[in-house]
Amino acid sequence: MSTEAFNPDAARPIEPPAPGDAGRAIEPLRLLAEDGEDLAIISAALQDAILRPADIVWEKAARRLTIEFSRFCWECGGTRVRSAMQFGDVQAVRSRGLPRLPDAALELLALDFEPTEAPGGRVTLMFAGGGDLRVEVECLDAVVVDISDRWPARAAPAHPEDDAEAATVGEGA
User: Fold this and answer.
1) Whole-angstrom Cα distance, residue 106 to residue 54?
2) Is 115's pLDDT higher than 50?
3) How far apart are CA 70 and CA 47, in angstroms?
4) Is 18 helix (H, G, I), strand (E, B) or coil?
5) Rounded mean pLDDT of 102-130?
6) How far apart, in whole angstroms, are the C-alpha atoms of residue 38 and residue 42?
7) What is the DSSP letter of 112?
8) For the segment 30-48, what is each residue's pLDDT rounded down to a tens digit?
9) Which long-range contacts (C-beta less than 8 Å, at least 24 apart) are formed by 109-116?
10) Radius of gyration (Cα) for the chain, nearest Å?
11) What is the pTM of this model?
């Protein structure tokens, strides 16, 4: 797995805000997930978030997992913000294929919820490069909040399937 957050050669330039959007205040993100549908919304908001293994803190005795991210703000474009996600009622946390160096960069692709014995289940955080973090929960109780001011992002994240789709659409024109 690469130690870079994302490949700048693959990133798309950031488009300026639409007229009238520049002066609009954007509220900090605050989301709660209590089921798989809620978690899908959080997954979309955290797509392309960047973190380090040192940003993952599991408090076993408190049954709590907290993760800090540098989140690309898809909803306001062109900025990043520090965000935190916390899971309650955590029974176990396991990683597979993630780097052990505390400062290695990880890029979050998606989150998924697989129900087990109701109301429990397994949350899987999938990262670029194929690694994942699995969180066994007694019940799904996840919160995401923005915890800093926004700052300009260098570039918008790009995805290979976006590039392939654009090439396919362009071929027929």
Assistant:
1) 11
2) yes
3) 11
4) coil
5) 95
6) 7
7) E
8) 999 999 999 999 999 999 9
9) 109/47, 109/48, 110/43, 110/47, 111/39, 111/40, 111/42, 111/43, 111/46, 112/39, 112/43, 113/33, 113/35, 113/36, 113/39, 113/140, 115/36
10) 17
11) 0.77
Residues in Cβ contact with 25 at an 8 Å cutoff, skipping those fewer than 6 apart: none
Res. 14: pLDDT tops 60? no
Q: Which residue has the higher pLDDT, 18 or 156?
A: 156
Report yes or no: 133 and 64 within 8 Å, Cβ to Cβ. no
In whole angstroms, what is the distance from residue 90 CA to residue 55 CA?
A: 17
pLDDT band of 25, cuts 50, 70, 90: low
Contact assessment for residue 96 and residue 22, using Cβ atoms and an 8 Å cutoff: no
For residue 2, what are its two tokens? 């690469």
Q: How large is the greatest C-alpha to C-alpha distance in the chain, in angstroms?
A: 59
| pLDDT band for position 156 (cuts 50, 70, 90) | confident
H helix and E strand count, the chain: 2, 11
Q: Which two tokens stand for residue 114?
A: 């697989």
